[in-house]
Design a protein that fits this description.
By secondary structure, this protein is an alpha/beta fold. It has 4 helices and 14 strands.
């Protein structure tokens, strides 16, 4: 018998080293087989039960261990059976892009609608820059119309803002911490409220 331990191996390794300290039937069966014939008499069912006992004793001491068991039974180097929960691929919480060491100039907007962009060491020049849902680090904004409407964003002091207009949307409250940070951290050419058409 061979074994591999990962994640939280200390408790399981101690049980394998000295199984006689536990009264669990699966552990005692393992101990008896190891004493009798170095584990050759352990059936696959007994090995599965022993593995389950190791998870159980570890879970009692380490809260991050446990849950529904995932058990693969191998025979002759191949997977004979696989038991456990079926995992579904999680949908990404957002469409996310990275713009690093890039230049965007003269366009209508620097970001496609519905996506989030992390700008790192990039230059945005003479373009519309929506802050909501986007993040900026070590970048330079020049002659841009920068729009903010109260959403999650990060435009910190590692960025340079030169000759840009800040347009605040109806959801951007002037007294909010984020708007105050934007107003205090950068020299804006002009700060204005977005004109919302009346219907």
């Amino acid at each position: 018998m061979t074994h591999e331990l990962a994640g939280q191996p200390a408790i399981a390794a101690a049980v394998i080293k000295d199984p006689n300290k536990m009264r669990d039937p699966a552990v005692q069966s393992y101990a008896a087989s190891m004493t009798a014939d170095h584990g050759r008499s352990l059936t696959l069912d007994k090995l599965v039960a022993f593995g389950d006992a190791l998870v159980g004793v570890t879970a009692r001491a380490v809260p991050s261990v446990g849950g529904e068991r995932q058990i693969a039974v191998l025979r002759g180097g191949r997977v004979q059976s696989l038991r456990g929960p079926r995992f579904q691929r999680a949908k990404a919480p957002m469409t996310f892009s990275l713009m690093s060491d890039s230049t965007i100039a003269g366009g209508r907007t620097a970001v496609a609608p519905g996506s989030s962009v992390l700008f790192v060491r990039s230059v945005l020049r003479q373009t519309a820059v929506p802050l909501d849902g986007n993040y900026f680090f070590g970048s330079r904004l020049e002659d841009c119309e920068v729009r903010y409407d109260g959403g999650v964003t990060r435009l910190d002091t590692t960025n340079e803002v030169n000759n840009c207009t800040l347009v605040l949307g109806p959801q951007a409250q002037r007294g909010s911490a984020r708007v105050q940070q934007l107003l205090g951290a950068f020299q804006w050419k002009l700060v204005m409220d977005e004109v919302v058409p009346v219907k």
